[in-house]
């Protein structure tokens, strides 16, 4: 796929997609922050993932004028972002989609800085991510990317020229994605539900595309605790294991060499998770179930997962499904 080079930022149409679930007060703050962006948004889509609180109501009543889509069941972050992206593309036809959870609070220039780096980079950029900090200003370990392995000197230099770092993956905690890349590579895989959905999605777009980490674009990730994803996850460890097996064996996001490297990295992370856990019996049971389902099941098509959830099926079907991995990568 070839993306044409962009120039300037003033006329770039960006739609923000916010996935909300039971954090109505943080959602209000997130929408306030979106309204305060120095680069005005062309629209905001809020996906309410069957919240038990009044998240949908406060989103409807917020002066930013968001389009609120209430799903009739919780589809997880993966399903929420897939639904939100599809709805944003169908409703607004933007040049870029800006993705975030309801506990993401962007600073006023967060979007403008992403667009600046996108415009100044000498080649087309598929996606860009922000610097993610906790509420005390420390870099959040859950959302801090590493420089792209194997990046060339030219890629590193070109990125540095625009105040960025080349990356291989990015987080849904402030990810700006070119709509053309989404239409070519497909939506996030809704069946992931939670965990590794943004890793798979961004790595798929960046296997041959350009991704930038832009430290001058700053957002707060207001998690309850400060820590990485290997903090004791309990029963949710099932999704980490199952989805990582799916990504390593069924996704087109990684090359054969990368699958070997990421398998080793995943095993090391799982060992650390077990070592730091106070409920190893829970993790063991979740891990065994995750391996079983990861090996013997495949993720269902996103359109099938979201069918009957409340998002128009035609919107999801209009965006291509991710390509199936063939042997050899």
From TrEMBL:
Q: Where is the Glycosyltransferase 2-like domain?
A: 17-146
Q: Does the keyword Transferase apply?
A: yes
Identify the domain of life: Bacteria
Q: In which pathway does it act?
A: Cell wall biogenesis; cell wall polysaccharide biosynthesis
- Keywords in alphabetical order: Glycosyltransferase, Transferase
GO MF annotations, alphabetized? glycosyltransferase activity
Among InterPro entries, the record links this protein to: Glyco_trans_2-like (IPR001173), Nucleotide-diphossugar_trans (IPR029044)
Region of interest (Disordered), residue spans: 304-329
Matching entries from Pfam families are given as:
Glycos_transf_2
UniProt record similarity statement:
Belongs to the glycosyltransferase 2 family.
Protein name, per record:
Glycosyltransferase
Origin organism of this chain? Answer: Oerskovia douganii
């Amino acid at each position: 796929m070839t993306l044409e080079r962009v120039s300037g930022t003033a006329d770039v149409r960006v739609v923000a997609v916010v996935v909300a679930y039971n954090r109505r007060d943080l959602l209000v703050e997130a929408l306030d922050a979106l309204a305060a962006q120095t680069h005005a948004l062309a629209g905001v889509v809020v996906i309410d993932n069957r919240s038990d609180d009044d998240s949908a109501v406060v989103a409807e009543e917020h002066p930013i004028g968001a389009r609120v889509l209430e799903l009739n069941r919780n589809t997880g972050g993966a399903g929420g972002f897939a639904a939100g992206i599809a709805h944003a593309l169908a409703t607004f036809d933007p040049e870029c989609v800006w993705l975030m959870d309801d506990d993401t609070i962007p600073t006023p220039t967060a979007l403008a800085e992403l667009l600046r780096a996108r415009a100044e980079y000498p080649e087309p950029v598929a996606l860009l991510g922000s610097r993610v900090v906790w509420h005390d200003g420390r870099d959040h370990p859950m959302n801090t990317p590493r420089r792209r392995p194997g990046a060339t000197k030219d890629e590193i230099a070109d990125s540095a020229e625009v105040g960025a770092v080349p990356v291989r993956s990015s987080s849904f905690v402030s990810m700006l994605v070119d709509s053309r890349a989404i239409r070519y590579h497909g939506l996030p895989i809704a069946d992931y539900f939670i965990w590794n959905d943004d890793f798979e999605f961004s790595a798929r777009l960046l296997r041959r595309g350009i991704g930038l980490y832009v430290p001058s674009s700053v957002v707060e990730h207001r998690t309850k605790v400060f820590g990485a994803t290997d903090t004791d996850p309990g029963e949710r460890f099932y999704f980490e294991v199952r989805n990582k097996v799916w990504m390593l064996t069924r996704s087109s996001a990684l090359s054969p060499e990368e699958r070997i490297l990421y398998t080793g990295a995943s095993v090391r992370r799982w060992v650390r998770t077990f070592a730091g856990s106070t409920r190893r019996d829970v993790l063991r049971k979740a891990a065994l179930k995750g391996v079983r389902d990861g090996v013997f099941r495949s993720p269902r098509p996103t359109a099938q997962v979201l069918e009957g959830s409340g998002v128009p099926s035609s919107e999801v079907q209009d965006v291509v499904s991710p390509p199936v991995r063939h042997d050899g990568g």
